[in-house]
Request: fold
Amino acid sequence: MRYVCRAEGIGKDYGTFQAVRELSFGLSPGEIFGLLGPNGSGKSTTLHMLTGLLAPSRGLVEIHGVDIRDKESRRWIGFAPDDLPLPMSLTGWEYLQFHHRLRRRDDQYTAAELGDVLGLTKALSRSISDYSHGMKRKLQLIVAVMHSPKLLVLDEPFRGLDPEAAAVLRELLTVFAAAGGSVLIATHDMLRAEQDCDRVLILHQGEQAALGSPRSLRESFGDLATLEDVFLHATHLDQLQAQRRKQLHAALGATNH
Ligand SMILES: Nc1ncnc2c1ncn2[C@@H]1O[C@H](COP(=O)(O)OP(=O)(O)OP(=O)(O)O)[C@@H](O)[C@H]1O
Reply:
């Protein structure tokens, strides 16, 4: 089967530090895939390798069968990063126009439809400098999806969205995947990952700590109740939590008496 996105033994070194060691996985058409991990575990580094923004130190990435080093692969990718600075002097529409020109495509119709669905239509004619955090996220989402990519890569997509916008985003992801696209989401939101993702990869210090469907992982880690429990166990944070709880009891208990 042809994967929409395939990573084979990818890793990244920053100097002598191995930020990501050796990851191999593939995203099937229609799959929503979560990339989870504590702060500094290598999620952003992995996303940047998969989207061609960062060259891996080793291994291979293919998008829709095309090597990521071939710029042709980029047209299959839509990426909404967590922290991309937006040009504050442009209106939303001007920013979208900029991307139409960059891609040599005219996706105005899709952009307008998405703007409508996300409740951003009025704001698109206003300067981005007036946008709230959530409005900026919505604009980034339109840019990521309007050219009909095969792979949608989203870094913390639900952060800063109100409940209505979050529900629209979930619907968008479902429709995108049902049409045969693959979605890769990096997130700290365990509940969303458990509910929305077909499979998740949990990173710990740049290595794969677990890979599978939330349900299969709960079972394989000893019938744990939630994906968050699996996450804490796979990344050894449960031991740390127990130790911290003891320290807090010792510290606060001692001052309270
Ligand atoms: N440009 C860089 N130079 C050196 N080290 C880096 C660089 N970028 C990231 N790192 C290190 O690589 C490791 C992985 O970082 P990365 O940003 O990929 O983690 P993350 O899982 O996305 O973290 P977070 O959840 O905090 O966003 C960290 O130890 C980080 O300090």
Notes: Residues 14, 19, 37, 39-45 surround adenosine-5'-triphosphate (CB under 6 Å). The first strand starts at residue 5 and ends at 14. The CA atoms of residues 4 and 64 lie 4 Å apart. Strands lie at 5-14, 17-27, 32-36, 58-63, 66-67, 77-80, 151-155, 182-186, 199-204, 207-212.
